[in-house]
Q: What sequence folds into this?
C-alpha cells in the first residue's frame, strides 16, 4: 500500500478541499491565528533584534499521495494528486518576498522592537563572513519548491529538529505518521552540517550586534487546507475555488539569542492561514488515462488476492498502485500578489505579537 508523502504537520493539513467547499477569506485582525512557542526563555528581554534570514518557500507544483485501500482504488479514487500554479511569473517572486520582509519588520517595530537596519547588519564584520543567499528551485517530497530570499539574506533551509529537538506526529485519516521536514530537498538535507555551522556563526553575529537574530521561514502551498477524504475518493471533476495556504509549523521564526549561548527559541504558526480565492482549480486528468489507471489497479488487486493463496505467496502484491489526478490552479499576477499579501499580514502580525507577548 502506498505510503503518504510527509506534507502535513501537527495541526493539519492536506492540500485540497472538497469540490463543494468554498474557500473563506480570513481577514479579521482581532482573530489572529494561534501560534506555538518552543523554548520561550529565548523571547525574554528581547528589545533589539535583527532579521538574519527571511526565506519564503513557494510551492508552485504540489505533489501529494494518499493512503487508500485496494477496493477504493478499483473504483478510481486517486492515490496521487498534482496541482500546478498557472498564471504567475516566478521572476516577480523576489519583489513579493522583499515586500513581505518589509511588512514583518514594520510589525516588529509596531510591537516596540528596535529592528537593526539591514545596512547595519551588512556592515557587521561577523555577518560579512556569511554567504549571500541566492534564490533557487529544489525538488522535495511535497513538490517543486522555490526558496526565495529577501534582500539577498542567507538561506538556512534545514530541518530545525537538529537545533530544537522535538518529536512531532500528525494524523492523516486517523493514522499517526512520523514527520520529517517535507519542504527540505535531499540537496539541503545533505548540506545540513554546513547550515548548522552557519547557525553557530549566527551566534557570533548576534553577540557582536547586541541583538537577537530572527530567522524567518514562510511556506506556501497551492490548494485548500482541509482534510477531506471525499476529494481523494472521487475524480474531483469540474471546478472548485482555488487558494494558497500558509501551513502550520513551517511558517516560523527561530530566535538566536543575543548572548551567543542560550538555547534557540521558535515561534510557529499553529493552524493554516488560507488566502481568498485566487481563481479556479481545474482538472487536467484525461479520461483515457484515468480509465487505464483504474483497469491497472483492478488487475493489481486481483493479483494480490490470488497471490495470497498461491505458490507465489503474494509476491505480485508488492506492485504499486498508480492513479494520478492532476489539476491547474488558475490565477493572475495581480490577484496572486494581493491575496498573498493579505494572508501574510495575518501570519506576520500573529508571529510578531507572540514574540512581544513572550518578551
A:
Amino acid at each position: 500500500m502506498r505510503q503518504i508523502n510527509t506534507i502535513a504537520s501537527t495541526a493539519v493539513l492536506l492540500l485540497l478541499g472538497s469540490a463543494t467547499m468554498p474557500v473563506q477569506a480570513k481577514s479579521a485582525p482581532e482573530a489572529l491565528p494561534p501560534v506555538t512557542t518552543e523554548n520561550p526563555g529565548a523571547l525574554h528581554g528581547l528589545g533589539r533584534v535583527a532579521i538574519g534570514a527571511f526565506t519564503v518557500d513557494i510551492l508552485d507544483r504540489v505533489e501529494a499521495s494518499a493512503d487508500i485501500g485496494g477496493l477504493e482504488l478499483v473504483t478510481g479514487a486517486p492515490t496521487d494528486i498534482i496541482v500546478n500554479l498557472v498564471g504567475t511569473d516566478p521572476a516577480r517572486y523576489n519583489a513579493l518576498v522583499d515586500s513581505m520582509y518589509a511588512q514583518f519588520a514594520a510589525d516588529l517595530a509596531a510591537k516596540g522592537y528596535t529592528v537593526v537596519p539591514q545596512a547595519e547588519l551588512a556592515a557587521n564584520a561577523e555577518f560579512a563572513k556569511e554567504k549571500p543567499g541566492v534564490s533557487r528551485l529544489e525538488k522535495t517530497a511535497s513538490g517543486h519548491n522555490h526558496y526565495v530570499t529577501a534582500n539577498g539574506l542567507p538561506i538556512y533551509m534545514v530541518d530545525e529538529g537538529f537545533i530544537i529537538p522535538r518529536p512531532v506526529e500528525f494524523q492523516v485519516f486517523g493514522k499517526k505518521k512520523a514527520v520529517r521536514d517535507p519542504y527540505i530537498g535531499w540537496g539541503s538535507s545533505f548540506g545540513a552540517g554546513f547550515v548548522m555551522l552557519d547557525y553557530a556563526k549566527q551566534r557570533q553575529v548576534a553577540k557582536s550586534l547586541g541583538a537577537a537574530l530572527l530567522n524567518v521561514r514562510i511556506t506556501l502551498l497551492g490548494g485548500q487546507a482541509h482534510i477531506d477524504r471525499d476529494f481523494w475518493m472521487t475524480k474531483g471533476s469540474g471546478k472548485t475555488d482555488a487558494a494558497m495556504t500558509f501551513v502550520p509549523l513551517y511558517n516560523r521564526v527561530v530566535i538566536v539569542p543575543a548572548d551567543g549561548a542560550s538555547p534557540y527559541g521558535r515561534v510557529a504558526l499553529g493552524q493554516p492561514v488560507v488566502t481568498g480565492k485566487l481563481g479556479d482549480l481545474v482538472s487536467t486528468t484525461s479520461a483515457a488515462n484515468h480509465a487505464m489507471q483504474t483497469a491497472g489497479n483492478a488487475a493489481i488487486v486481483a493479483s494480490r488476492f490470488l497471490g495470497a493463496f498461491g505458490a507465489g505467496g503474494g509476491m505480485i502484491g508488492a506492485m504499486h498502485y498508480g492513479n494520478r489526478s492532476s489539476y491547474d490552479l488558475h490565477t493572475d499576477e495581480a490577484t496572486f500578489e494581493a491575496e498573498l499579501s493579505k494572508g501574510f499580514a495575518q501570519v506576520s502580525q500573529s508571529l510578531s505579537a507572540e514574540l512581544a507577548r513572550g518578551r
In short: Helices lie at 70-74, 93-110, 118-123, 186-190, 192-209, 229-233, 287-307, 333-358.
